[in-house]
Amino acid sequence: MTIYDNIYEIAADNYGLVTSAEAKEAGASDKELSRIAKDGRLARIGYGVYRIKHWVPTEYDIFAESVALVGPGAYLFGESVIAMHALAPTNPAQVFVATPNRVRRSLPVSIKVVRRPDCGDATEYEGIPSQTIAAAILSCRGTMMTSRLADATRRARELGLIRVDQEMALLEDLNGGD
After folding, report:
1. What is the pTM of this model?
2. Which of 72, 81, 121, 171 is the most exposed place for a label (fewest CB within 10 A)?
3. Nearest CA among 128, 127, 125, 129 for reference residue 162
4. Dihedral angle at the C-alpha atoms of 157, 163, 167, 173, nearest 10 degrees?
């Protein structure tokens, strides 16, 4: 296998994305990575993040790309978790990504970074590091209407993304413990 084949295998399992760190682990030097990008087989989408040219877009690409651009330890947060699962209407122009790390790199204006030292509520959905659905719903209190969050909670339960007891607890919490 060539180095590009190794890079392709990594990217094929990650929404067409590969980081320079992953490419190095696959045996690519910075010079080889640069040459592959110059050949047109990779497109640089941000600092240390590349997308293979032959990739069929999916509905989750924007979420995976945003998390990759923020860097190691980053995960989808709040409204973006709700958007990814189509649980309630959200602002599609913004993707919220949490990270325990300080981010100094330049990011697209569509990515909103949330600095969170504690990542205890992180999991993975569709192969993308994400805040849990229950934690995401609670994170949106005060920024989304309570009725939308309640609808998102019910929809998450219908889709099997949360359990009945979680649904009950979230609805009680959203209603102020009534």
Report:
1. 0.89
2. 72
3. 125
4. -140
CA nearest to 70, candidates 35, 43, 96, 34 = 96
DSSP conformation class of 13: T
Q: Do 139 and 77 form a contact (C-beta atoms < 8 A)?
A: yes
CA distance 64 to 26: 20
Phi, psi of 50 (to 5 degrees): -130, 155
- In whole angstroms, what is the distance from residue 50 CA to residue 40 CA? 11
* DSSP letter for each residue of 74-119: -EE-THHHHHHTT-S---TT-EEEEESS---S---TTEEEEE-S--
Q: In what order do the strands lie in the sheet with 17-19?
A: 17-19, 49-52, 42-46
Query: 40-80: per-residue pLDDT in tens?
Result: 999 999 999 999 998 889 999 999 999 999 999 999 999 99
167: enclosing H helix or E strand: helix 164-174
- 107-133 pLDDT per residue, tens: 999 999 999 988 788 899 999 999 999
Residue with tokens 């790390």: 101
φ, ψ for residue 118, nearest 5 deg: -100, 120
The number of beta carbons lying within 10 Å of the beta carbon of residue 53 is 13
Find how far residue 134's CA is from the centre of its chain: 16
